[in-house]
Specification:
The complex is a heterodimer of chains A (265) and B (326). The longest helix of chain A has 34 residues, at 60-93. Helices cover 76% and strands 0% of the residues of chain A. Chain A has one domain (3-257). Chain A has 265 residues and is mostly helical. Chain A starts with a helix and ends in an 8-residue tail after the last helix. By secondary structure, chain B is an alpha/beta fold. In chain B, the strands form 3 sheets. Chain B has a 6-stranded mixed beta sheet, with helices on both faces. A 4-stranded antiparallel beta sheet of chain B has the order 2-1-4-5, covered by helices on one side. Chain B folds into 2 domains: 9-228, Rossmann fold (3-Layer(aba) Sandwich); 234-295, Alpha-Beta Plaits (2-Layer Sandwich), CATH 3.30.70. Classes of the chains: A mainly alpha (265), B alpha/beta (326). Chains A and B meet through helix 1 and helix 5 of A and helix 1, helix 2, strand 6 and helix 3 of B.
């Protein structure tokens, strides 16, 4: 086999390992999928009546459901990558990573396995949340192409956040830290256009929400799934995603390759 | 590549500090191909650091190292292709079963489907893990985890194996099983560097022993050479009152009294005759001994003999502190 074939083979092995971990650790997977579902129910049934009235629609609650689904999908992505950080940190603090480091295997394959595994997990979580949303009465105007584009946008942004989560997991000294540091990502859809129109926010917050990365993603997905305008949000979304992915990738591989300096004798 | 008879492990002037703490101070280590060398020392002596450097996990500050002809600095991947490492902290995947752990190694060694399966089954059998093969590691005992750990190292047979305290924390039976496996490995021609803090383990397994103390090799030789420098352990006599202890101490000038424990440590070569002589002496002097125990030579005795001081780091209780007469 060639070097490239070995690299692909090692990455596949690590992906299989990662997927098995997810199956063996179902409580985490359930928690990560459960949180956005709970948010969806809370926002539609508890807050939806009043928030929907603000949209000026005739049936407030179902209008708000259609409005909030893209925001909840982004919460789903943010929650799922928290699991990535935890899994990476668990790996780095366990003994097995030292074994991998003393073996002649493609060096990046450990991280590649985590990234691909998390991407599959995130897409599965998105499917579950969308399923629930449809069950609650979510209606979309999207055709097959628009669906494909929406999934592509979500997957690309998820890919970027997963690399960021890998880096955060590598930077964390303990599994506990790793489960906390990506937490701020879950807040960002709320501080953007995920749950209410940014025009209703106070001045400073509105400016922040216009420039933070989650807003253009939410607006793009919303535009693709419902008939809202997309404008330049798609371009901005792709730029943010590629930027976050590239920087996080560099940060993560640097952290991974940096051999631990302080070490017990 | 050199033509000279390749040493399994050749390390010269290896230095390593963490911050301003010097952990390894110009360590030289040579392991001939197909032999077992034991690095013997207390916790904190630098044994694990030495293993981590030689197995490419951390870089040395200076020094030259070759493993089976591959330079650790310039050809780490060449080193990784020929070594196996089993550390004191089990390097197993806790979320997988025993069989899955082995299969993972077979996949990463690119054994192929059929060959991989066969090798996994062989190893499960050889390491007596077949019954637990499909059980999660959470139910594995310490000995089982250690066996699985070593089995994972042997999915493809490495030319050089590092065993970092392979029996630390194991019960005596698991220890013997481990020793048996290590002997078999050596017999198959693998070069082994074994770190341990147990003198009897080094004595049982190693062709040569290097004693490491505070980052320096303080003694080196065959087990027989090393043991000839150690007194044969001692007898510990426990007395009921200080008066008798004092009398016994004056009767036995070579002994060391420990007044606050009311004990006397008498150097002994471990023979029955010397024990009989001692008991006769005590009997004639009408000195009552509460208890007598026999203390076999351990790492502390080695250190006393070669450095003139006791073990400096924390020393775990030896699994066989006392024993039968030899």
């Amino acid at each position: 086999m060639t070097t490239i074939a070995y690299t692909v083979s090692d990455a596949r092995t690590m992906l299989r390992r990662n997927l098995k971990h997810q199956l063996r650790y179902p409580s985490m997977t359930l928690m990560l999928v459960g949180m956005p579902v709970v948010f969806l129910l809370l926002f539609v049934y508890v807050l939806g009546g009043q928030l929907g009235a603000g949209l000026g629609a005739h049936d407030g609650r179902s209008a708000y459901l259609n409005y909030v689904v893209p925001g909840v999908l982004l919460v789903t992505v943010a929650a799922a990558v928290q699991g990535t950080s935890i899994m990476v940190a668990m790996d780095m603090t366990g003994g097995i990573i030292d074994r991998f480091r003393t073996m002649a295997i493609a060096r990046a394959s450990v991280l590649t396995g985590h990234v691909l595994g998390s991407l599959i997990q995130t897409l599965a979580a998105l499917a579950v949340v969308l399923g629930v949303a449809f069950g609650l009465g979510f209606r979309t105007t999207a055709g097959p192409l628009a669906w494909l584009a929406a999934i592509g946008v979500l997957a690309l942004f998820a890919f970027a956040l997963i690399w960021l989560a890998v880096a955060l997991g590598l930077a964390a000294k303990s599994v506990e830290t790793a489960s906390n540091t990506p937490m701020f990502l879950i807040l960002l859809p709320f501080l953007g256009s995920g749950f209410v129109r940014t025009a209703t926010m106070p001045e400073g917050l509105r400016q922040f929400s216009q420039y933070e990365p989650f807003s253009p993603v939410v607006d793009t997905v919303r535009g693709l799934l419902t008939d809202a305008a997309i404008g330049n949000h798609a371009i901005v979304t792709i730029a943010w995603s590629l930027g976050i992915a590239a920087l996080s990738y560099l940060w993560a591989t640097r952290l991974y390759n940096r051999r631990r300096a302080a070490d017990p004798a | 590549m050199t033509n000279q008879k390749a040493a399994g492990i050749a390390a010269r002037d290896v230095c390593k500090s963490f911050g301003d703490h010097l952990v390894l101070d110009k360590v030289n280590l040579e392991v001939e191909e197909g032999t077992i060398v034991s690095l013997l020392g207390p916790n904190g002596a630098g044994k694990t650091t030495m293993v981590r450097i030689l197995s490419t996990l951390i870089p040395a500050d200076s020094g030259a190292m070759r493993i089976a002809g591959h330079d650790v600095l310039t050809d780490p991947d060449g080193v990784r292709a020929v070594i196996g490492v089993t550390g004191q902290f089990s390097a197993v995947d806790n979320l997988l079963t025993g069989a899955e752990n082995l299969q993972l190694m077979a996949d990463l060694r690119h054994l192929g489907r059929a060959a991989g399966r066969r090798r996994v089954a062989e190893l499960l059998d050889r390491f007596e893990l077949t019954d637990a093969a499909d059980k999660p590691l959470s139910i594995y005992s310490g000995g089982m985890r250690r066996r699985l750990d070593l089995a994972m190292t042997l999915v493809t047979l490495p030319r050089v194996i590092f065993l970092d305290e392979p029996t630390a924390g194991l019960d005596p039976r698991s220890r013997r099983t481990m020793w048996h496996i290590i002997r078999e490995l050596a017999a198959s021609g693998v070069t082994i560097l074994l770190t341990t803090q147990y003198l009897d383990e080094a004595d049982q397994l190693a062709d040569r022993i290097a004693v490491l103390d505070q980052g320096r090799i303080v003694a080196e030789g065959t087990p027989a050479e090393l043991k000839s420098r150690i007194p044969g352990g001692h007898l510990r006599l426990q007395f009921a009152d200080p008066q008798v202890l004092r009398s016994a101490a004056s009767l036995l000038p070579a002994a060391v009294a420990v007044p606050d424990q009311l004990t006397l440590q008498v150097p002994a070569d471990g023979t029955v005759d010397s024990l009989r002589d001692l008991l006769d002496q005590l009997h004639e002097a009408a000195l009552d001994v509460e208890r007598l125990s026999i203390h076999n030579p351990d790492l502390d005795d080695v250190f006393l003999a070669v450095t003139g001081s006791h073990v400096t780091g924390p020393l775990d209780e030896s699994p066989t502190p006392t024993g039968a007469l030899r």
